[in-house]
Amino acid sequence: MCRPSLVPTPSARPRVLAAAMQTATMYELLSVAETAGQEEIKAAYRREARRWHPDACRVAGNERRYAESFIRAREAYEVLSDPVRRRHYDLALSADRGAAAIGANAASRAGGCRAGARARARIED
């Protein structure tokens, strides 16, 4: 089989959620479009800051998760509210998407993981 099961086991769920949160763009963290203006970004940051502020945590044991989410929202706001830093971030984001597209294109040209396994089997024979 080429890839593991897509359904995470109960013990793997926290790691899957953490990985998904780390791969979210700063725009996704603030729930704004990439074309959002300064006022929209500011309002989204304030909304997320109220939501994730550690003092707003009502369940014992979730303080760390709230603090981490609050810090991520603050970092996203700091980058997206500064025009120069936002431009650099947008360029890096588009470069990452381009690299991912090139990688996906190479995999599709090779026929995916099954075709690669068949090609290796032919070479070994």
CATH architecture of the largest domain: Orthogonal Bundle
- The rounded Rg comes to 20 Å
| Continuous helix count | 6
- The geometry reads as globular
Largest sheet: none
Q: Class of the largest domain in CATH?
A: Mainly Alpha
Helix proportion of residues, in percent?
over 70%
In short:
The protein is an all-alpha fold and 125 residues long.
What does this structure look like?
There is one protein chain. By secondary structure, the chain is mainly alpha-helical. It has two domains: 12-81, Helix Hairpins; 89-125. The protein is built from six helices and no strands. The chain has helices at 13-23, 26-30, 38-52, 63-81, 83-109, 112-124. The chain is globular, with a radius of gyration of 20 Å. Residues 1-21 have low confidence and may be disordered.
Helix-strand blueprint:
Elements: H1 13-23, H2 26-30, H3 38-52, H4 63-81, H5 83-109, H6 112-124
Question: What characteristics describe this protein?
Answer:
single chain, 125 residues, Helix Hairpins, 2 domains, mainly alpha, disordered N terminus
